[in-house]
Design goal:
about 210 residues, about 75% helix
Amino acid sequence: RFLLDRVGVVRMNLLYPLTTLIGFIGLAIFPLFPTAIFLHFNNATLDNTINQPAHELNYNAIPHNFMGRVRSLINGVFYSLGVALSGVLLLIAKSTLSSTQTITIGIVLSAIFVVVRYWMGKSYLQSLLGLLRAGSVRWDEVSEGLTQLPTGYKEQVRQLLQSPDRQNQLIGVKLAARIRRPSQFIAEIENLPLSDDLELRRSTILLFST
């Protein structure tokens, strides 16, 4: 939870795939016992403490009406099929491939894993912002997955702050606190009806107190 709060779900999505890729590359260069220990640590510790919590937060970007069905499909069907397929591939590799060839396949699949997780992180933010603007999810349901926004989203935050809709303004203020140098939004925030809206005023005070 501490790491998620400090780094954010988008970056944490990449940590486990990258350590997995590094582990396979290490196995190819140094096929020694310490490398095996690192891979075991990666699978047993980093997966449970970092990868799984970050992966669970990705479901925040799915409309809650569909979340149960999507999770059942992913965890109940695709995950089971993936484990079964992995077992079949390992059996085939054991009898037909050398250890070097098997490790090479592991490196290739790990690289694909990194690309997929990067795409997930990008689409996570886009989907979550879209759901917030549409009012499909509440801020308190998704805020823990939005600890930091890339600066590339500043124009979307500026549009929310300039919107005449009160809910969009409130979301804009809360998102502005997640972008580096929130003082760049001072001009937009000064035009908000802070004196007429207690929650908006509190969010603005929280924004600049950080």
